[in-house]
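Aim 2 progress. For Riboflavin biosynthesis protein RibD, the working sequence is reproduced below.
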Amino acid sequence: MRDEFYMARALELARLGCFTTTPNPNVGCVIVRDGEIVGEGYHRRAGEPHAEVHALRMAGDKARGATAYVTLEPCSHHGRTPPCCDALTAAGVSRVVAAMQDPNPQVAGRGLYRLQQAGIDVSHGLMMQEAEALNRGFLKRMRTGFPWVQLKLGASLDGRTAMASGESQWITSPEARRDVQRLRAQSSAILSTSATVLADNPSLTVRYDELDASTRSRYAAEDLRQPVRIIVDSQNRVTPQHRLIAQSGETWLARNEIDAQSWPDNVTQFSVPRHHNRIDLVSMFMLLGKKQINSVWVEAGAQFAGALLQAGVVDELIVYLAPKLLGEAGRGLCHLPGLERLADAPEFTFSDVRQVGPDVRLTLTPKYR
Ligand code: AOF
Ligand code: ZN
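Predicted structure tokens for this construct:
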């Protein structure tokens, strides 16, 4: 019970890094001696000290004989920073409780093994589900090479995204849009398509003053990070004049062929193999994984939403439903060409349902067959 209390605190600390650590995971650490928390820390940004180092610095001499609770196996490699398992050993910690192993092939059990070899009492698996939920993107990328993909959709009660005329702005509420800002801010990248860029000319940024107050209390304005904007643009239709090109942070254009125009320094084109004259989505996500993108937040139209689902690359669907009816002439949520039999209809399970302002947010997991 005590162990769970301290691990819950370590998880809470780890969450403070959820807007800033990418491509690194969120990790928290609590050091306890004689029932007293003597050190605490979390990983804030790649290149900065790991959670354990912050906690050990705070604990100082009190780390000797103490228990360290960490939400992820302490690292054993020299990355941007030296191995945490050595730091814990040098500080004289006598017990380490990890919520889960680090699937990073550079660590993968070696951190725990080396602590054990140093005579430290080591265990793992405490509150593992919570620890998994903390780092869906990092863990999926380390295990499979692919990023974690969330597809956002917004619709009326009858599943319409726009009137027949295409008029679509503000179907969902300001509260839903604030929620989207927070989820964008937690993602490594925001992905959209040239069709959306040409139709709406969006900026696809995180706007600090549009985040809700509780998020702002955990995420300082000076730490604001712009997720990479990724645009699927197989026909090279995006131009340097589109609004997102002028935004701070990076923009990556996924294209079949790279053009010779001059683009600002923060814009990169990358070439992706073709699939039926379009971008091959599986290859693209694999490339994004190689580029250390942990998680992708997709905001696009019905065509692309359908293509992602049919390619089987969606990990989670986030649907905001507004309590309005747009009628039968309105445009549908998802374009699924070739779907004729009910038996072939994509199916999902609800993992969360909650009200956001006047709207409802549904979180669903696809059932891939
Ligand atoms: C830990 N504690 O707080 C974090 C860990 O480049 P580096 O040195 O920052 O190493 C990054 C890797 O270290 C990352 O891929 C993951 O395996 C692990 N992250 N480990 O012991 C931490 N952030
Ligand atoms: Zn480390």
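The radius of gyration is 23 Å. This observation will guide construct design in the next reporting period.
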